[in-house]
Specification:
Blueprint (H helix, E strand, L loop, with lengths): L1 H6 L6 H77 L5 E9 L7 E4 L12 E4 L2 E9 L4 E5 L6 E6 L5 E5 L2 H4 L4 E6 L11 E4 L11 E10 L6 E7 L8 E5 L3 H4 L3
Antiparallel strand pairs: 1-2, 1-12, 2-5, 3-4, 3-12, 4-5, 6-7, 6-9, 7-8, 8-11, 9-10, 10-11
Length: 261
């Protein structure tokens, strides 16, 4: 129809009118399909660009997450080093070796744990272990490059101690059930004059056969008179955080070397 209209000059006649009615909608449909496909192609290209940008941003987020974790780890390590340095200066009379905690027994508390230093580093059984602000425990087993430590909060631990302000002797015993409340047990304290007050420092005593004297154990929380009306028992807030141990100092001087008994 379009060709005939053009050849015979019927553009304005009936043939041209029929041609317009027939082919104009088809042309519009073809144009619509072309625009639709073009838009779809553009949208698909945009989607590919968005997905590529998303992947790039995800890689950046992952990298920043790793870097943040590394920075946090370095921060914790720096805090540990500062704490160990301060602790080392507090007990400067003793030779010490720093070690990291590499394992522990099941449970919330570090009542028995392993460190990454052993016989190759001069570690021996019965060496005292420090962390935080004071006494952690004592070495019980030693391997070539590891050692086992029993903390003073363990149920089997007993430490001869004294009140620093009055020099009154007492016994500090581990109690994991009591430790769930944040305390350890104190007993056999002779305080007839009621001079021991809340917050008094409790340290290892001279009469201990394995622990060096003067190592901070904790602070008096509460006391009450025993049924014998001669001694008192109570609880101590430990000087060490036994829930988050990461590094320790091992005193390499043995008690019998410093104070022969």
């Amino acid at each position: 129809f379009m060709l005939l209209s053009y050849v015979f000059g019927f553009q304005g006649g009936p043939l041209g009118t029929v041609s317009g009615y027939l082919f104009v909608p088809i042309q519009k449909g073809i144009n619509y399909v072309g625009w639709y496909l073009s838009d779809r192609a553009d949208n698909f290209q945009d989607l590919r660009l968005v997905m590529a940008e998303r992947d790039a941003l995800q890689e950046q987020v992952d990298q920043l997450t790793i870097e943040n974790s590394q920075l946090m780890q370095e921060k914790y390590e720096l805090e540990d080093l500062r704490a160990l340095y301060a602790l080392d200066r507090s007990y400067s009379d003793y030779s010490k070796v720093a070690a990291n905690v590499i394992g522990k027994d099941p449970g919330n508390w570090f009542n028995s744990f392993q460190i990454d230093k052993g016989a190759n580093d001069g570690i021996k059984v019965d060496m005292n272990v420090l962390s935080g602000s004071g006494l952690v425990g004592i070495v019980t087993k030693v391997g070539a490059d590891w050692a086992q430590v029993r903390a003073i909060i363990d149920d089997t631990s007993n430490v001869s101690a004294m009140i620093l302000t009055t020099a009154d002797n007492c016994m500090v015993s581990g109690d994991l059930q009591l430790m769930s409340e944040g305390f350890i047990s104190l007993s056999q304290l002779k305080d007839s004059d009621d001079q021991v007050e809340f917050g008094a420092k409790v340290v290892t005593s001279q009469v201990s056969d394995k622990y060096h004297p003067g190592l901070l154990i904790g602070y008096v929380q509460d006391l009450e008179m025993d049924s014998n009306n001669l001694t008192k028992s109570g609880t101590i807030t430990p000087a060490v955080d036994f829930e988050h141990l990461r590094s320790v100092l091992v005193i390499t001087d043995m008690k019998r070397q410093i104070n022969p008994e």
